[in-house]
Amino acid sequence: MRALVLAITTTAFAAPAAAQGPDWTRFTEALAACARSDGIVGLGAVLVRDGRIAARYNLGLADRDRRQPATDSTLYHYASITKTLTAVAIMQLRDRGLLSLDDPATRWVPELRRVHNPFGSMDAITVRMLLSHTAGFQNSTWPYGRGRPWEPFEPTEWFQLVAMMPYQEILFQPGSRFGYSNPAFIYLARIIEALTGDAWQSYVQKNILAPLSMTRSYFGITPPWLAAHRSNGYAIRSDSAGRGTVVTTGREFDPGITIPNGGWNGPLDDLARWLAFLAGNTGPEILARATLEEMWRPVVERAPDMWEGLSFEIRRGEPRLVSHTGDQGGFHSEFVLNPAARVAVAFVFNTSPEGGGRPGSAACTALDGAARPLLGAAP
User: Fold this and answer.
1) CB contact at 8 A, 370 and 27
2) Can you tell me whether residue 348 is helix, strand or coil?
3) Contact between residue 134 and residue 119 where contact means Cβ atoms under 8 Å apart
4) What is the 3-state secondary structure (H, E, C) of 137-190?
5) What is the model's pTM?
6) Does domain 1-379 correspond to CATH entry 3.40.710.10?
7) What local confidence, expressed as pLDDT, does residue 359 receive?
8) Strand partners, 345
9) CA-to-CA distance for 183 and 306, rounded, in angstroms?
10) How does pLDDT run across 157-201, given as a tens digit for each residue?
């Protein structure tokens, strides 16, 4: 029976349904306008409804020098959307009774006691705080680089992070406010490894990717059998006059020790499978729906129009929309999900401003309003 369910899941993603009408057309026109305005080399987008890809869109080039078009098979980098995989893995272990969200993180990562905490004991920082970006750790995993071409993309070994812990401090009272933190998810990965005996990548492969048939997803450097489909990355570099030039960042980079907070690569089909699971259409054996709903409850205000849950953004207003973004190596990705309607929109650019983020032109800012009707919300 399980093999049959997986086969059905795979078949459902083999081809999209017919074109989705004027709302999808307006959204793809908005994507094209953003690409023209800001020099985006290539992009892809999917609409996921009721557990299947309802529509998809590709534009531009996966690799400018090779004249390789962006297609359904193009492999993109999803950066911080990886954090949602790590968060679900933690909640799996919680539901199995192996941890509590209110346990101190130092129970499994005792090295954190080396960090200076002017607000009290490091033992007061909980798993819940790591998940909700409220622990007080810094944003950057490695704030010591100077951008030299010979520097590693990210630290490659755990001992590097441990060695620098005595030179780091907690930036605010843990639990008191939001402060985005990449290293928090490395610490969550260490908890997963301590409890299961598996490396983070092995655990995620066995407990998330494989049962959801996300067969072309991988972490780190692209394996040879997929390399031909890998997109290059591009950065928009602005000069002192504000003129932007698109420069190549490279097809490959090593996220090193930061893979649990930003190392996921794969085609949009696999991201769509992930969204179908989050929407409740597949994978109840992976994580209970009630647990996903728990992850989407507001924990702390992230911005005037947004809450942070347990590793997911919750947008204010009706209907409730859940989202996440990712930025790294020239790639920018976003998804927005309406859990009640079981519908989601996702897109990924292989080009982003040098400092990360979605390009800030009016055309690119308009994407939010263009996506909302697809999600059952007012523009």
Assistant:
1) yes
2) strand
3) no
4) CCCCCCCCCCCCCCCCCCCCCHHHHHHHHHHCECCCCCCCCCCCCCHHHHHHHH
5) 0.93
6) yes
7) 87
8) 47, 336
9) 22
10) 999 999 999 999 999 999 999 999 999 999 999 999 999 999 999
